[in-house]
Amino acid sequence: MSGASVPRRVLSFDSNPPYTLPLRFFLSAPLFVLLACALLFWQGDAALASRWSPYTLAITHLLVLGCISMTMLGALMQMLPVVAGISLPAVLRIGPLVHAGLCGGSLLLGAAFCWQLPWLFIAAGLLLLATLLLFVGACTIGLWQQPDSGAAEVVAAIRQSLAALLVTITLGALLASAFVWPAAIGLPLQLLTDLHALWGLLGWVGLLVMGIAWQVVPMFMVTEPYPLKARSRVSTTLFLLLCAVSMSSTLSGAGQSFHQLALALLVLGYGGFAGLTLYLLARRKRPSADTTTLYWRTAMAFLLLAGLLALLIQLPAGLLPYALPVYATELAIGVLLLTGVALCAINGMLYKIVPFLTWYHLQETRALGNSVPNVNQIIPPQHGRWQYYLHGCAVLLLLAACYAPALLCRPAAALMALASLALCANLLTAVRLYRRLRRAVGA
Q1: Rounded-to-integer distance, Cα 400 and Cα 395, Å
Q2: Cβ-Cβ contacts under 8 Å for 351 (sequence gap 6 or more)
Q3: Is the pTM of this model over 0.90?
Q4: d(CA 230, CA 200)
Q5: Does this entry carry the keyword Transmembrane (predicted)?
Q6: What tens digit of pLDDT does each residue of 263-312 get?
Q7: What are the start-end ranges of the H helices in 181-319?
Q8: What DSSP string describes 156-193?
Q9: How far from the centroid of its chain's Cα atoms is residue 442's Cα?
């Protein structure tokens, strides 16, 4: 059966969790971007001087944990019951605990990197470990259930992303131990750091974005479904390539050649996903592109650019007519993956998920004569578009700042902070509408 012949499934909207459960995650995420931007503005080019700079590590983890993972956990609590008919156990009790633990752990870890205090690493590590394992445990119990018909590929990618999260957590715990007891634990820190970043960005984040895309790109952006072969094979292949890259990372000789080949195939696999998504978006059934479509097109374009840079810096010296500064290019790849791919995809989805949830949970107020705006009008489209332009310009400025940090670092941080403030204001527009109409129901 071809991808185009796959029927569009009826989603289980009756299984929606309460409005406030995912919203607490979604509204917290832009605040951590603001905190990361403030830290970057304060430190300036010193925050980009070295991948081992404590401020670089603090900014990275504020973005990955406080914003990206924050949004993803909230989205999974929202999507699993609706998309796959999978209910997480005791989600109304677990959700607030996970939110509080992730907020506190992200702040503690950022402070630990900035101040280099062992007790802060211990506190942050224990809190984050307990929080993430609680969430993964709840998801494991939930995903043991049989998913709804047609959701198998989405659930498979989610399972693989959660397995990648477990690997990321394990490597992160080892690295935190090295910060606390540097003399007692003889670990290859550079290798563990590379693998931690690999599994966190391409495994946990990349596979989850891919699994969500199987569902939301056709549904929200009105495209044809992804081909069945892509949905059923790509995420599994990429997960196996992640394993191959990790296990071959310490080999030499022919083993090192195998490692480079597996890494190149991994990059090409994600490039193929980006190219296929752009192809479907180019053939979508609506001629005008809304904010979500613009964000996803941009995210996939940045993913292709990040892959191209990753392949170029692996080439032997002399094959290029010019020399790429390796550290600045590695930093640029990280900026592209974090702010260009992950944040663009997340921002785009928030402009669909939050208005839809607001509209859905306000339907009962219609019986009392209240008028509920159309989903596309809950957040004014022009507000979302302006925020998209701000974010896109901020990503480009951050990308340029990797090569000229002294000149562009602080302007890039200020522009990204402005884009995050605009996102927060747009999301609060929907929340204020919800509260106003709910108060009218109570009156």
Answers
A1: 9
A2: 290, 291, 292, 295, 379, 384, 426
A3: yes
A4: 22
A5: yes
A6: 999 999 999 999 999 999 999 877 788 999 999 999 999 999 999 999 99
A7: 189-198, 206-221, 228-247, 254-282, 291-312
A8: HHHHHHHHHHHHHHHHHHHHHHHHHSTTT----HHHHH
A9: 37
Q: Which of 365, 216, 194 is nearest to 280 (CA)?
A: 216
Interatomic CA distance for residues 169 and 177, integer angstroms: 12
First to last CA, the chain: 53
Amino acid found at 43: Q
25/76 Cα distance (integer angstroms):
11
Positive or negative CA dihedral for 388, 393, 399, 405?
negative
Q: What is the pLDDT of residues 153-208, one digit of tens each?
A: 899 999 999 999 999 999 999 998 888 887 666 778 889 999 999 999 999 999 99
As a whole number of angstroms, the distance between CA 107 and CA 115 comes to 12
Instruction: Write the CA distances from 180 to 123, 169, 192, integer angstroms.
Output: 11, 16, 16
Give every CB contact of residue 208 below 8 A, 6+ residues apart in sequence: 72, 76, 157, 158, 161
